[in-house]
## 1
Amino acid sequence: MAGPRSALDRARPYLVTALVPIVVLAGGSVVLEYGFRLTEPTLRILHWIEAIALAGMLLDSPLRLLLTRDRPAMLRFRWLDLSVVAAFAIAMTIYYVAGLPDAEVLAQRTIHVTIIVGLVLRLVELNRFLATLRIRPALLLVGSFLTLIAAGMGMLLLPGATAEGQPETTFIDALFTATSAVCVTGLTVVDTGIHWSPMGQYVVLGLIQLGGLGLMTFGTVFAIFLWRGMRLRESIVMREVVSHDLAAEVKRVILFILLATFLIEGVGALMMFGAWNTTARGGQTVLADRIYYSIFHSITSFCNAGFSLYPTNLTGLRSAWEVNVVVPLLIVSGGIGFGVLYNLVRVVWYRFVRRGRRTPIVKKRLTLQSRLAITVTAVLLVGGTGLVYLFETYPGRQGTWQVTAYMPPERSDGGGVVTSVVGGTDDEEHSPLGSAWDERLVSAGFLATTARTAGFNTTNTARLSPPTKFLTVVLMFIGASPGSTGGGIKTVTVAVIVLGIWSALRGRPHVQAFQRTIVWGTVTRALAVMAVGAIWVGLVTMIVCAWGLVPGARFTFLDVLFETTSAFGTVGLSTGATPLLSALGRLLIVITMFVGRVGPITLLVAMQGRPEAAARYLYAEEQVAIS
């Protein structure tokens, strides 16, 4: 028989009911203030609304502590909320008691920061609640990306997100940019550093960071920090999200993902500090600009996003060592997979740092996935560099380096040829990779690296030779490694398929690699991923060729295939077809970016209903001819 209900149990429905509109009011008022250009009287009214809403948010945890019977447990559960209340009270006391000259401005900024922290805490609670429900992990993953895209699109549609003097942001442009940022693609229909205001750029950067690591990963990290652990159901869900085998190690892996991300991005930003001499608008950079540009490009590099603040991407910095060394290192670090990074760090730790101690052998060896991911990545980087250099050095015919996706002068609004912002010169007599052999080799290495889902470019990709374009399509379709910030069908998938074909050709009943056996279920799943991806890219390419380009556009099938594969692999490279897309074409590319980011199989699993029980019988076997 249940005991008498506590005062908190009786009051909880009323507290929750009151907190929902308060949170919506607080968040909405902050969005209004920063998203719209308001008059002073309106701002004063909003400031009062924010103060009242914040007071309601801050009173929630003290009231719960006052009404509960088990106050020590409530303190452990709500320690951060109560710390925020105390910090806010101390800050306000200092501002006004010390008589600071800018006390009102500081107080208002503190109110905004506190509201944002409160909203984050409520979202973390929601994330924890959703993870405990009996919802398929694939559906939660798809839902988190859709939620992030919708929120980002809404913020980019705010007038304050568009820079002054720029045309109004349309719905399709905001949707395209938000999807490209969340799916870490890099395809753009407007100049990131010119069209968007500082607020709009912050939104894009936040979407890239959240989309690269995953919204659920961030939510789980906060949950671990707040509540010192994870429930079993949360561990099972996050095991699927981070692509890790053992649920018992998920907490450690998630914390490693966050720490490794910020450490690598921080080191990358420091190393790129000296690369920025001019701003996106052509002015001289100051210290604040260098810091911001370094952080922006470090995050977009590690997340394999390919967004740049410059209209011509990184073509103006093609000779800078920061671009040719640091950016590729960040791209490979983010694209190799967090599971591989975790495995490498663990192997180094137990083999060299803790040598001589009794350690399980499993902690001192690379897993099969790590070996396959590293091997395929190395082969693609070295082989891709060599083939790009070969194709661009020995073209075999004249007229190879011509732009093939463009709008004829008589059809363009500006009286000239319109192509995407891919940078570089229009010298059709020489390869866009450069005239000197060493310059071509460096550019070839950068292209082979960035085609693996990053999307930065230091050359005019619209003028690449046809074989180089097709090779880039192959690299983009393969993409990065599982559990990384990149897209594509993944390196390990290709490795498993190749090993399966090799085993079939040699008549072996099992697929083996590095003295390990791969189960046939993994091989068939890899084949399904590649088949579904190829079918999707082929269908979208045909539809875009038929109805997805503006009237009068000049293009080749390879240009559209390049664009579609770039979206599916979440790469962001383009040969000039992006500005030629009609509304239908942009919508198809948006959907393709989303499918490529979450994975076609994951999307299909999320759309399925309740899985059917396995049949307890088998039909009679019969042979069919396949050749």
## 2
Amino acid sequence: MLTRQYRQHQGWLGYLAVFVIAFLLFANFQHVTVFADPDSYYHAAMGVQLRDGNFSASFAALPYTTLAHAYADQHFLYHFLLAPFAAIADPLIGLKLLTIMLGALMVLTFYWFLRRWSVPWAFAATMLLLMVNPFTFRMNLAKASSLSLMLLILGLAAAFSYRYWILGLLSFTYVWFYGGFPLLVLTVVLFAVVSTVHRRIMKRQDSNTLLHRIRALLGRGFRHQRIKRLNLRIAVAVIVGTIFGLILNPFFPSNIRFYFDQLVRIGIVNYQHAIGVGGEWYPYHFIELIANTVLVSIPLVIALVLFFLFIKRQTARSITLFFLWLFFLALTLKSRRYVEYYVPFSMLFVAMSLKDSIGEFKWRDAWRSFKRDFLGNFWARIGIVAVATYCLILLPTIVVRDYISEKKDLANGFPIGIFQKESEWIKANGTPGSIVFHSDWDEFPVLYYYNSTSRYIAGLDPTFLYLQDKDRYYQWVNVTLGKETGDIHAIVRGSFDADFVLVAHDHNAMENLIRSDARFTLAYSGHDANVYTVQ
């Protein structure tokens, strides 16, 4: 009785420790007056609009992009969660608080998943996850990444448990929370296929054994058919839930075109060869990925070796995680943003496959043999001490190096208040719907946060402008880069009907181009940009 109570307390203490450690770590990273990702300002703006009851199924802020007629708020429920945080504090501070909460909850979900399947090293795997720089960096960007991962892991847990009603609800909700919802469909269908095939292979291996024949006589052979039906149910549940999430949606039917642009044309096709896209869409080179995630890479190599050595011991769960690891590795090598999935799913595969490979290993007997065969030898002891010392020095060095690097990366970006005065001046001196010709697409979220009444040229992703009108896109780019040799006024006023031009101080070539034409008048010189009126 006492032992059971002790284990229960120990279990709750583990969950509490994981949440507190993750919360404090993320709070430390968020303790800067900067957002590393400019899209954070867009999320804050949408949270404020929902807080104030200003919901709209259209998006007029970017009239020259595909979003003007094919828009969906792919983070709708995330912005709904943000609304109360925007009410209790400054919206940008509220966004940071929500980022910390969701990040800690995501790590807690990861830990719960491993505990759910009795992985003995669940706590160690979770702590190791928190030491991997690329993962924690992505979790600390003020966006819905941690929420997406949480839903994906919960969905995987529901699939492993064959809770198809929960899966249907989760898949429906995922569509409303985040545009990465196809990942849940792929994950669940993959498990259904792997589980069915795995069961069939195991059945064939047992088919000639006396035990199998006895089970068949007793009617136990019907379990295979039952598992097959359950796999079909979870696959159908996730597909149906996703379809309903798309159709029973405040943005239907324009969301279908939006998701095609976002998921296929931007996420898969990607136009990085033709236009300058966000840095997260460029490839992650293999050696760089392995080096940056070395704390995952080392146990991953060990797990892979044991996975193939003991392949017959692997459950359908571990095999599914192996294929998911391969899938997210391929995605990450294509676009570095997917490292936020690659790292945790690598750790899930490591933890679960090691349990299958060595879960029944007789550790006490192995320790006795180790002491007898190795510790009794002087040179073996010297080697063990050398390796242990190297690891004790190397691990803290990597952790401290990555921590310092991440603090520095998260402190660089878009400070709170950037472009605020310039945006407020345009709002005060313009009219609702005034068009601002700005100097870069990543300025849009900040400008929109401080002034949502004006209209802008490009934002959220330059591909939306490129897909709508390639000629306009290149006109805008040539002006912002200072390369345009034609009539600038004809482009700014004629092609874009702009009332104001905003030039950030780091766009010197554009500044010189605008100043060379007398039809642009410097009306406001701010700390971060100059604002010109257009005749």
